[in-house]
Amino acid sequence: MASLAQANLPRAFQRNWWGRVFGLLLVVYVVYAGGQMEISWERVLVGADNAHRFFSRLFPPDFSRWDLLTKGLFESLQIAVLASFLGIVLALPIGLFAARNLMPAWVSWPARALIVTARSFHPVIVAILFVKAVGFGALAGILALTVASVGFIGKLFTEAIEEISAKQVEAVRATGSPFLSVISYGVLPQVFSRFIGFSTYQLDSNLRNSTMVGIVGAGGIGGTLFAAFQRFDYDFVCAILIAIISLIMVGELLAMAVRAIFIDNRTLFDLFRRRDRALRETHLEED
Length: 287
Fold this sequence. Notes:
This protein has 287 residues and is mainly α.
């Protein structure tokens, strides 16, 4: 009887023939796609030799044109901050209208279509369109990254609202509160921390994308980087890349500070005091 019961138990790893067929088809397609893309070991070896020569010309970096470098960095920072602010302001009502647990279908579906449209194209493609529309410069970059921010934050904000507990919303409605009060006291407290996380991530993303849209003429350090590549000025290219990495690191520190202030209810003084305490504890452990 025991052996019969053990035989009827489900196996930990059951055979899935459809999974094996799909895996085999995937391997076959990868091999086929590699052949169609003209990928070969000869090209890899030639590319490695070219990469060695290219990287040897990057160093040492040339920071002598620091005025041009700082101008491009500040412009990229301004593009990212303005686009993030405008995108967040627009994504709040759009994401709210797209939530199916709060809005009727005739309101939520057009809002969802708008979010999908904003997410359909890469920021560089949108930047090209705005460069053609408003001309070269930072305005095109701001508009392009604003569209990207609306698509990203609007989608995540909508999903966060649809996952909230309906009990808190119904409790506020039971008091006879108007719609704005229901949103302020029943919805926003449940999604505020997540929305701060979405916003800080979007700022970090816009910092990176602001350096990229400049390649197509939408302002920022990307235009300076592209011009340096065109002149084969690789030591200045290395300086620009180091500056971009530094900018992203500053953005990460800013995002950490924003999350600590709005989510953990700490001040900037608390952040530095906590860092000093951690350093003192480290030194005590070493001693």
